[in-house]
Write a structure and sequence with these properties.
The protein has strands at about 1-5, 10, 25, 30-35, 50, 55, 75, 80-85, 95-100, 105, 105-110, 120, 130. By secondary structure, it is an all-beta fold. It has a 6-stranded parallel sheet, with no helix packed on it.
Length: about 130
């Protein structure tokens, strides 16, 4: 478990976190992290809770996060993420909470979001076409 929210962290997210094979909770929200989300984090097969909200992260949401088959909560809101939501993000049918609001996302919502049978909370997805 890495719970380091609101700890005044700066810099980028190290891709070496992907080596923590048994990591279940990764919460780096409410810091001053910048740069992109490392695609290697998609190798965290045991990850359930993924929170990077309220930072200054840029770039696209890596579709590789969809390989985290145990993932139930995704919090990427209040960043500077751009591009479209990758359809691969919804490979895990276990997602219950999805928060992507207050980014610079564009495009359409992937149709496979409908397979998320456990989704019960989804923060607004502004700028996206339905």
């Amino acid at each position: 478990m890495i719970l380091a929210s609101n700890q005044f962290l700066r810099g980028t997210i190290p891709s070496q976190l992907s080596r923590l094979n048994h990591l279940k909770d990764l919460d780096l929200s409410e810091n001053s992290l910048s740069g992109s989300i490392p695609a290697e984090l998609g190798n965290l097969a045991s990850l359930k809770h993924f929170a990077l909200s309220d930072n200054a992260l840029t770039g696209n949401i890596p579709g590789s996060l969809g390989r985290c088959s145990m993932l139930t909560e995704i919090f990427l809101d209040r960043n500077l993420l751009e591009g479209s939501i990758p359809p691969g993000l919804f490979r895990s049918e276990n997602i219950e909470i999805l928060s992507l609001a207050r980014n610079n996302l564009t495009g359409t919502i992937p149709s496979n979001i409908g397979q998320l049978k456990n989704l019960h909370e989804s923060k607004s997805l502004p700028n996206l076409n339905l």
